[in-house]
Amino acid sequence: MQDTITAAINPADEKGVYLEGDALDQLKKYYQSGTLRVKAANQIGGGAAGIISETVEKSLLYGDITLPGGNMYPTRRYAACLRDLTYFLRYATYAMLAADSSILDERVLNGLKDTYTALGVPIEPTIQAVQVMKEVVTQRVGAEAGQEMDVYLDHIIAGLG
Amino acid sequence: MSIVAKVIAQSDQSDRFLSNAELTQLQDFFANGTVRVSAAQKLAANEQKIVDGGSKRFWAQCPKTPSNSGNPQKTSLCQRDQGWYIRLVSYCVLAGNAKPLEDIGLDGMRDMYVSLRVPLANLKVAMRCLKEVAMGLLSSEEAALAGPYFDQLIRAF
Lengths: 161, 157
Prior knowledge:
The complex is a heterodimer.
Chain A: H1 4-15, H2 21-32, H3 34-46, H4 48-59, H5 75-98, H6 102-109, H7 112-119, H8 123-141, H9 143-160
Helix pairs in contact in A: 3-5, 4-5, 4-8, 5-6, 5-9, 6-9, 8-9
Chain B: H1 3-13, H2 20-31, H3 33-45, H4 47-61, H5 72-95, H6 99-106, H7 109-115, H8 120-137, H9 140-156
């Protein structure tokens, strides 16, 4: 996977130069934002199960999707949905820490849409759930870190759309 | 790869969020970001000085070596490589991880220098001299961050 530091080092090495100017300034900003990122990752990791429960309750639970004929019925598929939402949350948290979305492309989005289509998982409710996840996460981590998480949860939404 | 990517890959491997120990590790890494930047800037600004000073020390200890053979082309190639290693150390300081040094400068390094007929034992001395000069230019905090990567470099020869 790529992260924001490696993404700065690789092109510098291609040219055989030290990191300086804009590239170094960007790294400085990243280091400064580190405490915020670590704190948010801690809150999200510690409360992941609760975040997922609340996300499902606010987006999917009371819809047709959980009834017979829906894609979250029977329980096996309900559990699969929880698992996938947890993946989204975990990888978005990784990406937020790295300040780089490439891990989402590599580990989550690559082939996801085709898989969902093949399994009959409806895209629209999935996107709704991730939208709600953004709000639930922001409530827990605060506006500033929430904005940063939005970047990566939006990246998942864009990849599904 | 940075320490951030390393810790994430580790967590991903076992399908979990980051552990408290890993989060603390990252917190410590971010907390001395300013020192990382100043150390990298000093290495960049003083590369030539470190190489020149390092060569003088090196040749005093090891006069019979390709870079001191009187062939200016050899001297400049050897010193160029030494400068590159200083640059790789600066990347490691910024990344908080030895991967840039390992991937760019150590993987295959021994085969290369054996083929170039540059004695590895001499290079070990040369790298130690680079470290000594570099450490003298850095603050103690900066030196504490850069030193371990120089040590790994020295050990590799």
